[in-house]
């Protein structure tokens, strides 16, 4: 779930009577699970909402490299270092697929990057939290990738073809990441008292931010209703959050760790856990830029972009010279 | 062929493995911070290849030593004076140009050396070289292209690449500075005497740097001490502070 609170048209779902013939035909295709492809006609709002959603997802992958990248140089064994490096590299790859999917909607990767760096576009709130001990690398894989998968698995069926195909590739890698994360947690939870303390500390800090990844309840949201009608959002935030909690609590128990929620209780009647809501005022603070790492994360991206300008210019200039020389030789 | 004692073979293997370990570590520092996504992915690939090779070289080194240690033990629990990597690979990343120039100067050496190791008298060395040489053939192709692209790019990119070459050049000579260990290894047919690789190396880099419109500095001065362990740069200690911290702080843990 790397896209949060994506705004749609804000006008709610149109009734069939209010739709133009093109819109009706479009909606029929979506309803019949026929994929929409880049050259097909699509409503303006659909295009814009998708650019926002896919763009936010792509930015989340790129910014998401940073908290885990923070531990590559300190990974405790050669194997752990390689696994982590490969994982963070996968995230760059996911960014690439997603930027490419967004480009099919008529926006360039550079435009999206500029929008991220200027603060016009967001990335997932979760990446504004710090990774403070080695178990955080396990917790990010287990909880953050776990929460992401909850949303991304249904998105494999999303109506927009290029997005759906990108999600299919991404999901394969994400579930591998989640298993790697859980593997670190197992080692830590079964390790020395200090390691176990790191594991519990990581769970304490990442539990509520992970629940926030799904976004606030959107049962009443007009944006979500439109996105669901277009099948670019498949489940409500609350449904996904419940599913995540139900899946994760037994895993925490297996690790011998305590979920930091006194109200957590199995509810036989609903067949799921009752649990405490995260502190939504904290969530909105993080979105406003007041999370623990917002400034560091954005500065890191801005620096990478600005420090890399001469490299991009240099390689482009060389490619042009080479092409000109080739033409001159012909 | 001359009989080789195991300390000499282990010394050679540590030199191979420490080069790939320290350079792999340095390159991995770029992850998430590169000028373009494609470069980020490519640099991570290079680092992954080098770290994979490290597992093989150091794994064989500890097997030869026969003291029951693991590759992780030697990577994470030795102090700077026991490291046998070239000074070149422990130098800071600097800007992207300096990183790629360092990579190119090492890749060229690495590819020439691994090519010769395919004929090593030691079967394990041959097998490792076989795997590594395929990866390094790609590394040198990529770093050459980048050095040419940036050297022959804009005025700024050219100036930065020339500055990188000027800074790194005094660390090139160490790659070819043979000692008694190298001569023993060469006599046993395990690896060539590094001094014998210089002509091929000069031809390779001469061609690429000319295409990059860069000038090779007019000095053959060489800083030394990395591969013998007599004097590393100040930078290595800082790499080890980061790399070894968890293993040092929690000595009885498994990860």
From TrEMBL, chain A:
Record's keyword annotation contains Membrane: no
Residues making up the signal peptide according to the UniProt record: none
Methyltransferase in keyword set: no
Family matches, as Pfam families: PaaA_PaaC
Keywords associated with the record: Oxidoreductase
Region Disordered, annotated ranges: 1-22
Residue spans crossing the bilayer: none
SUPFAM superfamilies in the cross-refs: Ferritin-like
Listed EC numbers: 1.14.13.149
NCBIfam families xref list: PA_CoA_Oxy1
Protein name (Swiss-Prot/TrEMBL): 1,2-phenylacetyl-CoA epoxidase subunit A
Organism encoding this protein: Thalassovita aquimarina
From TrEMBL, chain B:
Any Pfam family: PaaA_PaaC
Signal peptide interval: none
InterPro entries: Aromatic_CoA_ox/epox, Ferritin-like, Ferritin-like_SF, PaaA_PaaC, PaaC
Protein name: Phenylacetate-CoA oxygenase subunit PaaC
């Amino acid at each position: 779930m790397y896209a949060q609170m994506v705004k749609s048209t804000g006008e709610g779902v149109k009734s069939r009577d209010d739709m133009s013939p093109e819109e009706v035909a479009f909606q029929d295709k979506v309803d019949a699970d026929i994929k929409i492809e880049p050259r097909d006609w699509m409503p303006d709002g659909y295009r814009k909402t998708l650019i926002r959603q896919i763009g936010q997802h792509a930015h989340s992958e790129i910014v998401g490299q940073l908290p885990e990248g923070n531990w590559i140089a300190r990974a405790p064994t050669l194997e752990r270092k390689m696994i982590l490096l490969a994982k963070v590299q996968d995230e760059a790859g996911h960014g690439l697929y997603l930027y490419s999917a967004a480009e099919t909607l008529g926006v360039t990767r550079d435009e999206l990057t500029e929008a991220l760096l200027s603060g016009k576009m967001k990335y997932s709130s979760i990446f504004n939290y710090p990774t403070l001990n080695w178990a955080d690398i396990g917790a990010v894989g287990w909880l953050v990738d776990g929460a992401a998968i909850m949303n991304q698995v249904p998105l494999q069926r999303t109506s927009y073809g290029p997005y759906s195909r990108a999600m299919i590739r991404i999901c394969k890698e994400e579930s591998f990441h989640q298993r790697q994360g859980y593997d670190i947690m197992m080692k830590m939870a079964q390790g020395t008292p200090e390691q176990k303390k790191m594991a519990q500390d990581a769970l304490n800090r990442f539990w509520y931010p992970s629940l926030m990844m799904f976004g606030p309840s959107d049962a009443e949201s007009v944006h979500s209703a439109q996105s669901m009608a277009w099948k670019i959002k498949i489940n409500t935030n609350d449904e996904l959050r419940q599913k995540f909690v139900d899946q994760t609590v037994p895993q925490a128990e297996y690790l011998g760790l305590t979920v930091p929620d006194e109200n957590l209780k199995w509810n036989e009647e609903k067949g799921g856990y009752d649990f405490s809501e995260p502190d939504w005022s904290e969530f909105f603070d993080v979105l406003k830029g007041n999370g623990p790492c917002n400034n560091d994360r954005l500065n890191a991206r801005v620096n990478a972009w600005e420090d890399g300008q001469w490299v991009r210019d240099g390689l482009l200039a060389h490619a042009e010279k080479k092409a000109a020389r080739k033409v001159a030789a012909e | 062929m001359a009989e080789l004692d195991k300390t000499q073979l282990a010394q050679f293997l540590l030199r191979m493995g420490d080069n790939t370990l320290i350079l792999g570590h340095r390159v991995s520092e770029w992850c998430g911070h590169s000028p373009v996504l494609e470069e980020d992915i490519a640099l991570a690939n290079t680092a992954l290849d080098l770290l994979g090779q490290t597992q093989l070289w150091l794994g064989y080194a500890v097997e030869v030593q026969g003291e029951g240690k693991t590759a992780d033990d030697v990577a994470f629990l030795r102090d700077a004076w026991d490291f046998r990597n070239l000074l070149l690979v422990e130098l800071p990343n600097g800007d992207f140009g300096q990183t790629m120039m360092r990579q190119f100067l090492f890749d060229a050496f690495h590819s020439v050396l691994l090519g010769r190791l395919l004929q090593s008298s030691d079967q394990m060395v041959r097998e490792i070289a076989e795997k590594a040489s395929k990866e390094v053939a790609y590394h040198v192709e990529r770093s050459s292209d980048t050095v040419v692209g940036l050297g022959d790019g804009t005025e700024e990119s050219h100036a930065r690449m020339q500055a990188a070459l000027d800074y790194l050049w005094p660390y090139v000579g160490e790659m070819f500075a043979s000692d008694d260990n190298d001569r023993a290894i060469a006599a046993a047919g395990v690896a060539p005497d590094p001094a014998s690789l210089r002509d091929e190396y000069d031809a390779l880099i001469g061609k690429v740097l000319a295409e990059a419109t860069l000038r090779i500095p007019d000095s053959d001065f060489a800083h030394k001490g990395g591969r013998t362990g007599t004097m590393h740069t100040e930078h290595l200690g800082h790499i080890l502070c980061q790399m070894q911290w968890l293993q040092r702080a929690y000595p009885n843990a498994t990860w």
